[in-house]
Amino acid sequence: MSCEDEHYHNHNHNHNHNHGDEDHGHDHIAPIPTNTSQSLNSKIDTFKVTALNLQNPNDDLSKLFKDSNNEYEIKPIIKSDCDSQLIINIPFLNGSVKLYSIIIRSNGDLHCPRVIKLFKNDKTIDFDNVEIKKPVQILQHPKIGVQCDDEDELPTILESDNEFVEHFVSRHKFTGVQTLTIFIESIHDDDEDEVWLHSVELRGEFTELNKDPIITLYESAANPQDHKNLTAIEENNNIAFE
């Protein structure tokens, strides 16, 4: 089936949902649903988003974080370069975030991500240390996404909700987030050396930080002698003008 055929056959209005944690053999509490009003994409400092092992020009990174006007666009495809691993560092605009979920639209076949690790407030992460640092949460991404591995066959817009996967994160672990780092550790097909991403949406709460502290000057304990001197000066001034 071609990519254009998929456009007509896989259309609904529900995201796929994933708890995001590895299976620990116990029951999970159902996640709290999110909605579009909780999108944080407009709060991302897109001009300062960076990536390691990126095949694309840096300018393409900002296009990964779409809004309601272009959410179905699937180009440009964000691709890894030398291998299938990719590190994306996402700073927020003068504020901190309580993260609820991450919605990923990726390739759903040969270039589909499998293990995704999340870090917060650590700007030092690179490929020299990412394997030894402890992630805040590990996501197991299912093999769901755009079912097309030929970029030339891809349309610019694919109006289908079937390829979006929402990963719910542990909210209590993702408070006070000023930078979020996404590390795609592996993909489903070990024989391929590229991961493909079409869009990422973050959802949660945003709190703006006040850069200008309010400075209040006050007299903690009055010095009577100071007040006597001030009174004396005022009296002298009055005498001078009589």
From TrEMBL:
PROSITE patterns: PITH (PS51532). It comes from Candida verbasci. Residues 18-29 have a biased composition (Basic and acidic residues). Pfam families: PITH. The lineage of its organism: Eukaryota, Fungi, Dikarya, Ascomycota, Saccharomycotina. SUPFAM superfamilies: Galactose-binding domain-like. Belongs to the PITHD1 family. This is PITH domain-containing protein. GO terms for cellular component: cytoplasm; nucleus. Residues 29-222 form the PITH domain. Residues 1-35 are annotated as: Disordered. It comes from the Eukaryota.
